[in-house]
Description:
Number of strands: 10
Oligomer: single chain
Distance between the termini: 82 Å
Structural class: alpha+beta
Shape: globular
Helix content: 25-40%
Number of domains: 2
CATH architecture of the largest domain: Alpha-Beta Complex
Amino acid sequence: MNHSKYLRGVPSFLWVRVGEIGSWSAGATPSRSNPEYYGGNIPWLKTGDLNDGYIEDVPEYISEKALEKTSVRLNPVGSVLMAMYGATIGKLGILNIEATTNQACCVCIPYGDFYNKYLFYYLMGQSTAYIKMGAGGAQPNISKEKITASLIPISSVEEHKRIVAKVEELMPYVDQYDKAYSEVEELNKKFPEDMQKSIFKYAIQGKAG
């Protein structure tokens, strides 16, 4: 269902399924055994290319024939991407170019004037929860079904943009806190070892004196 009609002048938030705010799909990998599928001019994104920001370029390209003959989908500028499994699970991106993706990447083309950066930050905030839901197998797997079945609060486009602006204003402070926390954690790990060395050193010095 297209909820764009709800996104104008809504004074409070409406909870909807994530799958209802855009067209969702997973990508595909054209057969490597067919050289005609590769080396064209259509960007083909792998999850390792996701950078938790805007995607301006990717290192690999496929051909028009691959687009025509396989199940890859050409996603428009503004699409929101998320890695579903593998080493990059939970990584995100927003396309600044038209691109196809491999099957480990879930893509949303938002409906109407739904603000893609609002969805981007929502997925970023929920990625840990998705990973936990997908745990239990050989490797965690954030399936498209889990993402689209989850709930997201929506309001007006103006409210979404206000929230995104506030998030981006606060992000540098979050990064600073994360860095400081990591440094404290490192000190805490080293403290017992350093203390042990100091005690041993003073014990030797005391004996020698």
